[in-house]
Amino acid sequence: MAGVLIGLALLAFWLFSLFDVITTPEEEVQQSPKAVWLIIVAAVPIVGGVFWMMRGRPKAVVAARPVAGEAGVMPKGPDDDPDFLKELERRLRGESEA
Predict the structure, then answer these.
(1) Structural domain span for residue 6
(2) Which of 13-17, 19-23, 47-51, 75-79 is predicted with the least confidence, judged by mean pLDDT?
(3) Is residue 19 part of a domain?
(4) How far apart are CA 15 and CA 49, in angstroms?
(5) Which residues does the UniProt record annotate as the domain Cardiolipin synthase N-terminal (predicted)?
């Protein structure tokens, strides 16, 4: 039973690596061309997948998020906008009093 689970986990890792190579844009692939990585991962399933994860996969880029209160930063949605919330509260009070 444990052997079956390990086999399924290795198969899942290989498929994930293969689909990751296929869906990664050509210009983001590192070290070698995308076609070479595809052959490596397909021909040598586990070792190729590990090398892809370590060497070929694009590095994650963390975008800087604007800090609240910076000049020119607009709220993301109406529930983040203090002016909208004040106007909403004023309208709700006006409707309940009428």
Answers:
(1) 2-56
(2) 75-79
(3) yes
(4) 9
(5) 12-57
25 located within any domain: yes
Tell me if 35 is assigned to some domain: yes
- Distance from CA of residue 6 to its chain's centroid? 27
- pLDDT tens, 8-35? 999 999 999 999 889 888 888 888 888 9
Residue 60 has pLDDT above 90, yes or no: no
Task: Calculate the CA dihedral of residues 28, 33, 37, 39 and round it to 10 degrees.
Answer: 150
Which of 58, 57, 75 minimizes the C-alpha distance to 66? Answer: 75
Residue 26 lies in a domain: yes
